[in-house]
Amino acid sequence: MVCLLFASLVLATRLPYAPGQFFTFDDVNLAYAAGHFDVRISQPQPPGYPLFVLEMRLLYLLHIRRPETILFTLALAGSIAVLCILLRFGRHAFGGLTGFFAAALLVFHPVFWHAGITSALRVQLALVSLLAASACWRAWNGETRWVLWSALALGLCAGIRPEIGPVLFPLWAVSALRAPVSWQYRARALAAMAAAVLVWLIPTMWASGGPIEYSKACLGYLGDQASETSVLFGAIPNQGQETFWRLLAWTCCGMLSWTFPAALAWRRKDGWGIGRDRLAFLALWALPAFVFSLFVHVQDPGHALAMAPPIALFGGYLFDRALNHLHAQVSRWQTPILIAAALAIGWQIEFRNYADVVVRVPLIALAAGLLLRFDALPNAGHLPGTAAMLFLLIPVALVNYDMFQFEGWYYKGASTAALPAAWEAALGDLNSGLALTSIGHIRNTLAVDDHSLRAAIRLAADRPGATTLIWEHGLVTWRKAAYYVRGVPVVVLEHQTLRAGSKPVIAIWNGPTLTHRAQGPAPLRTTVAAGSRIVWLLNPRTEFYKLVSQSFPLTAAGPVYFTDLPSSSSSQVLGEYEVAW
Predict the structure, then answer these.
(1) Segments making up each domain of the chain, as ranges
(2) Is 289 helix (H, G, I), strand (E, B) or coil?
(3) Per-residue pLDDT reduced to its tens digit, 339-375
(4) Beta strand 467-472 with 490-495: parallel, antiparallel or unpaired?
């Protein structure tokens, strides 16, 4: 019944926001990969997600034929599976209602909620993290056969999200060392893990041109993507700081609603009483993922979901401990304190905006929790269990809901002094991190993409066979344009890598097929037919847009622009590129 409750919550909070189209560049890659797998052409992007693609193909065999529906179905199923496994694992590992509270914390977590609408693949990062760690827990507690089973689980889970292998390997290694087994048994378990990895890795490499080509594609992709966020891979210091604060927002935003139970659960003698053993397990589970995200790659909120289950379990434990303390004793001032807290929270909701609710409700809850510790008497059962749970969970629902629903996350300071300016920059990065987890981000992205794609399809239909799309940092990704604007070539003006100073590249795509690619010194030339129509997918805030507007007559069609070329031949140089006809 509890699983049905959380499944209903997932459906009620995700279905109304169903995108109806691919949300990201990666979604298109996965859709193409379901038909032809090759990471060299980003089907999907390296390192590849072979077992996830297998899930997509299985749903196709079950007659779910639309790729967008397949991905959203996997997002819903993955979200429900995470919550159900968390229920069981929390009860088994921490006892009491820890699993229930952990699932309640996660279902409304802004990052988990956002990913449950926009990215089935990232939801499964939380799922495989939880599956592998729950298997390791059995070995951690001395169940000898689970040294082997946890090794197999980790090896197979890496076939869904390959980064989970190195991230959770330290947890498995310590679990195996704690278990009372021989070194020969540990070696066999390690060999079984390697065999489980090879089950999916060999077909992945085979489909991607062999081990050498596969490794080159993975290393190139890692260095390219990590160069945007990690100072170790060449990101500038400002980008590194932005990565840190955004990662902090994505990792810790759910903790804002813990203040009330955290205050109630604390005891002077033993703190929160979680114990070193369980705390060490959670730390080994979460910290390697945090280090990987910070120093290797994290670009979207969903990339931080490997840390969401252990953090939710720690929170669930605090909530369960707080509930036990509420049952065991009562403050003489309990009724006026809770009434005052409820009125203060109600006033915040009625007369303040979402941001005030997110900031002030945790402070009100913290004050209430601290006040309830004073003048307390033993009086078990004074506050009914259901009422106590509601007092604990209502701030969770309010804070997380408002954090997700608020569409105005933005901050830009004006200070020039070193320390105030650094603090204001941090606030700006925290706000931008929260903005990327909000419903506003989903709505804005879908609105811009939908208008861009509809306009491009309409403009191409007016000139069938005589239209070319040219993309340069367009508001809609070129991969989505190539997928939805069928039969129209997309000329992508980009660079060899994302790092500054790399060579310009022109790639021409028709759907999933790369028909031409050229790179070299500027200006790099592309040719379209004279008298044809160019549909420009541009960002008006870029320098390239200014160059195009100075060289071509641009007609706006919603968020895109078009130019009908003359029948006579000519060319125009646009910075590093030349467009000829």
Answers:
(1) 2-319, 442-580
(2) helix
(3) 777 777 776 766 666 677 777 788 877 877 777 766 6
(4) parallel
